[in-house]
Amino acid sequence: MPELSPPLDQAILWVTHPSLLWQRVAGLSVLERQLFTAARAGIRTIWVGLQQPEPSLLAGLRLPPGLEVRWIMKGEASLKECAPPYLGISADHFIRVETLGYIARQGYPESVSFEDASGLGVVQVVLTREEAVSRRKMPLPPGSFRRLEAPLAAGETIEWLMLAGPKSQDGFMARNFDRHISLAVSSRLLDTPITPNQMTLFSTLLGLIGASFFLGDTRLAYVCGALLVWLHSVLDGCDGELARVRFQESELGSDLDFWGDNLVHLALFSCLGVGFWLTGNGLHALALAAMADAGAIASAWTAWQHRKARRKAGAPAAEAGVTDETAGSGLASRLSRLENALAQRDFIYLLVVLALLDCVYEFLWAAAIGGLLYFGIMLYLRRVNENEQA
Q: What whole-number distance in Å separates Cα of residue 371 and Cα of residue 342?
């Protein structure tokens, strides 16, 4: 059985059209995007087939932390520093991070050339220095790459890049409706100085303003508030889309988004309770709001502890659910799927419908009961997971 190559962490970026590297699309130059893609795919050292840029150009480059970048000209002796095995990456193509990462992690008994639909090499697995070596040719999956030609077709390229914006944990309405709006907004913000964290703060402020409308007692106030909270939910997707497409993800941004969402939920339940109390619905309205807030706070704190535990273990924090989904078809698995479904923000649509029907008080009841039920499911699943790991 032939020996397999180890995972690859060094690469050469082959450049055939140097001017293409400095064109900007979706907030980054082509070169910056190539370097970030390589770094996120696990590459630690990359040789760029280009003469080192002038200091002014180099100073303006945004380079991935932890990636060592070296500059070479084709045929230079310094190329010998990159000893096989390594990846050869075409600078004339964009490739998905997950696709390049998968290629880099696999073991290979022989050199391989991964090609686009026209037969051009996109990624080569180079196991030997022999230039005449015959490489096995393999096609890349459709949608995993995009060929670049000058001038760049910016609109089509951005559309391809934005496919990385949505999250796999999106609920039904978010996936089929909200994302169409947020992606349209995000695509217009990519080349602006607006940061993902600024977008998080803006959407949180919008949600808090919407929650304050529920201190009123008219259908118009309820509808306006519900629509603003819904708009907060839609635009809240923009921060993650901007971060993923511009490679600006951070723990701070993720945590800011997490606590911003929970702050809006607390403000919404509190304003509902206070609003109904002020309009003569009695102390039970405040009690319902307190129940909803207690469920939200307890759930948020449990989710926060789960995030911290995952990070400590070296895994990315969960984006939607509080516990990892349990495999199988038993009670724990069904509750796990229910918990992850309830973690979605599709409930905002229920708020909008009930506001239009002037039945917002029923939403407060649902929030009070649902919040405590959700927290109870979380505690049960957490206990199940801890017992399985013990």
A: 10
Dihedral of CA 378/199/164/9: which sign? negative
Distance CA 162, CA 158 (A): 6
Beta bridge partners of 69: 46
Sequence-distant (6+) residues with CB within 8 A of 120 are 90, 92, 93, 147
Six token digits for residue 341 = 């479904």
d(CA 363, CA 380) in angstroms, rounded, equals: 25
Q: Is residue 226 classed as helix, strand or coil in its secondary structure?
A: helix
Question: Measured at the alpha carbon of residue 378, what is the angle toward residues 376 and 380, in degrees to the nearest 5?
Answer: 70
- Taking the C-alpha atoms of residue 260 and residue 232, their distance in angstroms, rounded to an integer, is 10
Q: What CA–CA distance (Å, rounded) separates 10 from 29?
A: 21
Query: Is the Cβ–Cβ distance between 140 and 113 less than 8 Å?
Result: no
pLDDT attached to residue 75 = 56
CATH 3.40.50.300 fits 165-389, yes or no: no
343-364 per-position pLDDT tens digit: 666 778 889 999 999 999 999 9
Q: Which residues of the chain have pLDDT under 70?
A: 1-4, 74-80, 130-133, 165-172, 315-345, 382, 384-390
How far is residue 209's CA from residue 200's CA, in Å, rounded to a whole number?
14
The pLDDT tens digits for 366-389 are 889 888 887 877 777 767 666 555
Query: What pLDDT score was predicted for residue 328?
Result: 47
CB 287 within 8 A of CB 367: no
Distances (CA, A) of 384 to 138, 371, 379: 44, 20, 9
* Numbers of helices and strands, H then E, in the chain: 13, 11
CATH class of the domain defined by 10-154? alpha beta
Q: Are the C-beta atoms of 261 and 344 separated by less than 8 Å?
A: no
Torsion angles phi and psi, residue 86, rounded to 5: -155, 170
| Residue 120: C-alpha distances to residues 89, 106, 114, 117, 125 (Å) | 11, 21, 8, 7, 14
The confidence score (pLDDT) of residue 321 equals 44
Domain boundary assignment for the chain = 10-154, 165-389
